[in-house]
Amino acid sequence: MSLSEPRVSGRPQAGADGIQPLLGPAGSRLPGGGEAQQLQRQRPRWGSEGRERDREAVAGESLAPGQMGSPSKNQIYLVTGGCGFLGKNLVQMLLKEEPGLAEVRVFDLHLDESMRHLDKVTLIQGDISNLEDVMAAVKGAHLVIHTASLVDVWGRVSPEKITAVNVQGTQNVIEACVTQGTQYLVYTSSMEVVGPNAKGDPFFRGNEDTKYEVVHTEPYPVSKAKAERLVIEANGRPMEGGKQLVTCALRPTGIYGEHHPLMKEFYEKGLSTKRCVIRAIPASTEHGRVYVGNVSWMHLLVARKIQESPSTVSGQVYFCYDDSPYRSYQDFNMEFLGACGFRLLGSRPLLPSCLLRFMALFNSFLQWLLKPLCNYAPILNPYTLAVASTTFTVQTSKAKEHFGYKPFYSWEESRDRTIKWLQEIDAQKDSAK
């Protein structure tokens, strides 16, 4: 679900086995395909009147009544993990839609040198798990957007490293904010904080208040849940000068869009199978996805609101959503890959579910067996298969009600921008032949 989240290094890891184009780490089963289509038609959508959105109108509707401008004027924002997939997009969004900012600091372990030329951007190299590095980056910032995260659901990274980055790194950001007097903290959490749980219970059109048994066993969702808890519990922490720390968290579902490393990996793996993808998950499954530009827009809006009206968003968590259609992971990816000549073979799964389970278990056994010799970490394992086979969709308006969120990009725009990027990659591949 959250494989598209940013890593602290800005380079998400990817599996290397041949089944990668078949299964993503997110997806879900919806009983009855007809019901899925009917509910999809009922889903509220924005931007259906045309692909060209009036950006100023959208931004204007998102401002609080009576507000004449953004509170970010002459402020300094810090984006941790700012060279990652989401982080870089967020930085670009801030530069475009918050022109009053004095500086946007980008803190990351591996810097993207192409960002160095951006006006108002300061690149800071550092380790999120090192308190001194974080303290130096936070000093003087008015607001921190903490997107840095190490995403690994394949066992490529030790649980200790995941905890150091995701949990200790988040604690470091909190301590730095309190010590340096930075009052506002927005945390990029994950839907995997909620689930799917280890039991495979469905989450169908749920909102932030939907009751769901959270049962995690894998290091990544455990770490994100702990980190989010730290952020929310830190809300209201006393600071010097009588101020209090104000925090909130956003939970994206699977993020997609141009420059998505995993989408590029799916594309490249598909080339090895002559642009044919074998259906492994029923078409009646569905999973919520959200466009990276809309996730960035939600971060920008909540960053405004947390300063304008702290009591509204303080200590709150919000699901990230837009009007991207609910589809199975494979069917959703084919919305983009299909434009590059890819074909999804089979209207029903061509691989029996028992065979997939056996392959996942066998991969897990091989990983254990080969651990002393090499880091074997295929994308298909019992956890990723369970996630891909479990219904997990959201239906909420909390972000709209609390800070006026509406998607900045329509589904049509989001799809077309992603397709254009993939077609450019495809053209480069053809020209290199």
From TrEMBL:
<comment type="similarity">
    <text>Belongs to the 3-beta-HSD family.</text>
</comment>
<dbReference type="InterPro" id="IPR036291">
    <property type="entry name" value="NAD(P)-bd_dom_sf"/>
</dbReference>
<protein>
    <submittedName>
        <fullName>3beta-hydroxysteroid dehydrogenase</fullName>
    </submittedName>
</protein>
<feature type="compositionally biased region" description="Basic and acidic residues">
    <location>
        <begin position="46"/>
        <end position="58"/>
    </location>
</feature>
<keyword id="KW-0560">Oxidoreductase</keyword>
<dbReference type="GO" id="GO:0016616">
    <property type="term" value="F:oxidoreductase activity, acting on the CH-OH group of donors, NAD or NADP as acceptor"/>
</dbReference>
<dbReference type="Pfam" id="PF01073">
    <property type="entry name" value="3Beta_HSD"/>
</dbReference>
<dbReference type="GO" id="GO:0006694">
    <property type="term" value="P:steroid biosynthetic process"/>
</dbReference>
<feature type="domain" description="3-beta hydroxysteroid dehydrogenase/isomerase">
    <location>
        <begin position="78"/>
        <end position="344"/>
    </location>
</feature>
<dbReference type="InterPro" id="IPR050177">
    <property type="entry name" value="Lipid_A_modif_metabolic_enz"/>
</dbReference>
<dbReference type="InterPro" id="IPR002225">
    <property type="entry name" value="3Beta_OHSteriod_DH/Estase"/>
</dbReference>
<feature type="region of interest" description="Disordered">
    <location>
        <begin position="1"/>
        <end position="71"/>
    </location>
</feature>
